[in-house]
Amino acid sequence: MGVERLQVQRTIAAAPDEIFHILSDPQGHVDIDSTGMLQSFTGAPAQGVGDTFVVHMDREALNDYPLGQYDVTVTIASFDRDREISWTILGRIRPQMGHVYGYQLEPVEHGTLVTSFYDWSNADQHWKDAGVFPVVSEAALRATLGILARVVARGQQTT
Q: Which option is the CATH number for 5-154: 3.30.530.20, 1.20.1290.10, 1.10.238.10, 3.20.20.140?
């Protein structure tokens, strides 16, 4: 069995609550997306497991599958305020893919160690056999952490 989880880390010069605020907000998801797929959203920030919001997507940004514009529902799978948040994506394809995206936050000297992960170990076998994973590359996860650091810093400058 091959790799079924990607994980990258970066220390960001901010407190965990500042970072978690962005990660639990659908606007934050759009703001830090490095793939260009996330266009806008409908819904409120997550407050706990089971919360949902809709993200309006444009797959043409990756130019890999001809899905065009579509919506997905983000469903929060884990929620430990200022420590961890993860979610699954429910879309129009069947069976549902079953992959999980998330972040873990650990306070460290001079900020927060942020771990971004993408896990398809429990994904539907149909999609594993189709060879679509990983949907998002390790480089994209790493780039998103860089954008997250920039967004957090920008927020610190305005407060």
A: 3.30.530.20
